[in-house]
Amino acid sequence: MGSADKSRNVSRKARIEEMRQAERARERRGRALTVTVSAIVVAALGVGGFFLFSRASDDSSDAKAGSKDWPAYKVNEDGEKVWGKLGRTHVAEKVDYPMSPPVGGDHDQVWMNCNGDVYDHELPEVNAVHSLEHGAVWVTYNDKADPADLKKLEAKVKATPYSLMSPVKDQKDPVMLTAWAHQRTVSGADDPKVGEFFSKYVQGKQTPEPGAACTNGLAK
């Protein structure tokens, strides 16, 4: 009888030890899992923090580029760039516009004449922007533009009140069309987007000061 009891005690101790070993193993696995999860969380927070910092840096760069007057633009389905609300303060100094040609923003109190006026020289941007505020469409080109296209565009501008045309040497594309807060590139004078742009934006809904004069401004 004593031998049997002793045997049962040994077996019970063995099972208890097995249970303790199993519990210690579970604890080790739990600790390992906790460490792994913690590492993942820390890494995720680090990556997230990086992107948040990068986004903040980008946002501050955008703000620095033009402050409150330069919201980010969107590009619609057919490639036209559209800006949000732009500043309209009259200023006496030069404005550092973040695009060429500019699409709006603070500007000089005197506008460029835009009653179908065609200029053969680059215009003061601060005056041309005031013309955009009055609802003008501004046709611009660089030295890569086709002379035949320029003749056709010149004729269209001369026949259209509230439009003007001038060279802009450092613009990205050969021919561009600009209205207040709207801008697009066209392939040439025969691009159907030319007529669409004029129809939509000459004294269009985007005009901050519809009906304001396009004469008696700066002529050259």
Automatic annotation (TrEMBL):
Residues 1-28 are annotated as: Disordered. The chain crosses the membrane at residues 32-53. The keyword Transmembrane applies. InterPro entries: DUF3105. Keywords: Membrane, Transmembrane, Transmembrane helix. Residues 1-26 have a biased composition (Basic and acidic residues). Pfam families: DUF3105. This is DUF3105 domain-containing protein. It comes from Streptomyces alfalfae.
